[in-house]
Specification:
Blueprint lengths: L1 E5 L5 H9 L3 H7 E3 L2 H4 L5 H8 L4 E5 L10 H20 L2 E6 L2 E4 L2
Parallel strand pairs: 1-3, 1-4, 2-3
Antiparallel strand pairs: 4-5
Helix pairs in contact: 4-5
């Protein structure tokens, strides 16, 4: 599995399309994105990471950089998203961070 992460609107999906040599329509069949939103309500992040790691490509938006939310639920959701990203990075064959449209291979 290839794990791609980076800030919102940083070019993650475009990079994924170029990596897989496919269009946006094909990307929907071969990848899953916005997985950070799945972490918030998940009771078992390890099981979720195992399930997502079966996909060819997983894309997550980094949500932890910035102002810490006042709401405890929002803080917990960000924490879960970060932990899920760590679990996915451990399971991935390749990890890429895309920032300003520029990919940086981390693993």
């Amino acid at each position: 599995m290839i794990f791609i992460t980076g800030p919102l609107y940083s070019g993650k999906r475009e990079y994924a399309c170029s990596l897989l040599n496919c269009g946006r329509e094909d990307l929907q069949k071969r990848a899953v994105w916005d997985v950070q939103s799945l972490a918030a309500d998940c009771a078992d992040l390890n099981a979720l990471a195992d399930k997502l790691a079966e996909r060819e490509m997983v894309i997550a938006t980094e949500v932890g950089g910035g102002v810490v939310p006042i709401d405890a639920g929002e803080r917990a959701a960000r924490e879960a998203a970060g932990r899920l990203s760590c679990l996915l990075a451990q399971r991935a064959e390749r990890v890429v961070r895309v920032f300003c449209g520029l990919p940086m291979v981390l693993k």
